[in-house]
Amino acid sequence: MNILKKILIVITALVVFISIAGFLILPAVLKPVLTKKISEVLRREASVDQININPFALSATIRGFKLADPGKTTPFVAFHELHVNMDVMTSVFRRALILEAVRLDKPYVGVTRKTDGTYNFSDLIPKEETKKEEPSKPFLFSLNNIKIADGTIDFQDLPNKTDHTIRNLNLAVPFISNIDYYMKNHVEPYFSAVMNGHTVVLTGKTQPFL
Description:
By secondary structure, the chain is of the alpha+beta class. The protein has one domain. The chain is built from three helices and ten strands. Strands 1, 2, 3, 4, 5, 6, 7, 8, 9 and 10 form a ten-stranded mixed beta sheet that branches. It is globular, with a radius of gyration of 22 Å.
């Protein structure tokens, strides 16, 4: 067997291994670990229908995520699909998290103001600590081509006995970054939604924000 055939066999075996690990093994391992960790940290039941990973496109997709709202049948947070593409080379070079694309389809948030004035997320807000910590280096990131499609927000104000709704929420932001290189560019954000039955559309041009 000559050198070329050996190289081809090694490359083929490597591709097969990456395919099996990325497409089959990793999603099966991540799904229970992710849901368990989220449930433990937030003290709410979390569920995920499906996780897909494409090791060649360096993308990941999470489908059917739900975070329970204790005592209610509707979730606190949910989404149909979250898709991200990572720029590994730039991330390594910049020592930062660089995502080429972030797409969130049909997200849902249910907010409730209780009769005692607290909210259904009050338990998730960390309590202030008196101990002062030394400032650490900021986590560097650049999230590019951000799109939110067909979002829904329900706000239930029990003390005032009123409900507010946001439907068909759509948002497009070319990128959000705290890296100097990306801060030099301008973005053109877009927002549209139906708020309490009234359509709102906002467009503009601004610098990426932290």
